[in-house]
Request: fold
Amino acid sequence: MDKNILITGGAGFIGSHVVRLFVQKYPNYRIVNLDSLTYAGNLKNITDIENAPNYHFVKCDIREKAALKEIFIKEAITDVIHLAAESHVDRSISGPMDFITTNIVGTANLLDVARSTWKGDHHIFYHISTDEVFGSLGSEGFFTETTAYDPRSPYSASKASSDHLVSAFGHTYGLPIKMSNCSNNYGSHQFPEKLIPLMINNIKNNQPLPVYGTGANVRDWLWVEDHARAIDTIFHKGKIGESYNVGGWNEWTNLDLVQLLCKIMDQKLGRPEGTSEKLITYVKDRAGHDMRYAIDATKIKNELKWEPTLQFEEGLTKTIDWYLANATWVNEITSGAYQTYYREHYS
Ligand code: NAD
Ligand code: TYD
Reply:
């Protein structure tokens, strides 16, 4: 094997797409998927590659440093692509501590294990982060790689801390790090606590569509498989020590986006136009709700020749088709604990 790559969080939404891409595209790499399988981790996201000869799953919590060290040595890990995290802003507001222990301490554990295990310069520690570390924009402007950090939720503050630790290990110890900060992803296998799959599920089930505040907040949306391609590009071609912003050039207010989902789903479900829109319900705004995120993805375009490939309406249609065709996947994860979360959060 050319490399033994540890991908953390590979049973989650984005991680499962990254694991699939690497396992299928690089038969000469051994991919070790490390995940603790929280509510957001699901091995059913990757059943199609679970028997591939270059794939191996290890259940481990990145907060357990001694266990990480053992895995690094046993699997002779040469590179890390780090996605494991607590990822949902609303959960970080109701319970910040898991975000602090996993996103900050867990990342520090991985960095310290890599630093103390690796010799030489043929390694890469690639950290996946979010544009939310840059804070909130008004109606103008974009986040670039040099925008000052200004995180405003416990989630974004924990990701900002992990980004700073990654840079610090690069500067201080010469750990060969790379980093990227991406906008909101959408696509198959996303846990239905996030805006798009939650709305798809509720439209399908004729449930209220909870829009926070007035629905005027803006997000930039990127198809998850385009993000996975960006991660592949940065891992192979990005410069050591650099960070790259990844985005879709695709800004939508939440209300416009929910209305578009309603329109596409009315067509798919054979409902008269305008039926699902009637389910839109304005609910109490998120505490500290960031107004607008928008990424300037010029650096990755110019330096690494990466660009998003999929038009939004086409991507949403593919995503809706996937959720409608995978009712069992959805039903399994929306029963039990999800019902309690939903009741507590939205009542
Ligand atoms: P997700 O919540 O769907 O998946 C996270 C995965 O990490 C799960 O499989 C979970 O089991 C695992 N995990 C959580 N805590 C762990 C721990 N202590 N030890 C080991 N594994 C643990 O998240 P996602 O949306 O796929 O996001 C993946 C990464 O990408 C995160 O670092 C997130 O900050 C970043 N990101 C996400 C988005 C987005 O729109 N979803 C955008 C930009 C960046
Ligand atoms: P989300 O998918 O949680 O991603 P993030 O907060 O990381 O951007 O939310 C996207 C946007 O949708 C955000 O502005 C909050 C809003 N939102 C709602 O209006 N209603 C909902 O039920 C959810 C989950 C989100």
About this structure: The chain has twelve helices and twelve strands. Residues 97-117 form the longest helix (21 residues).
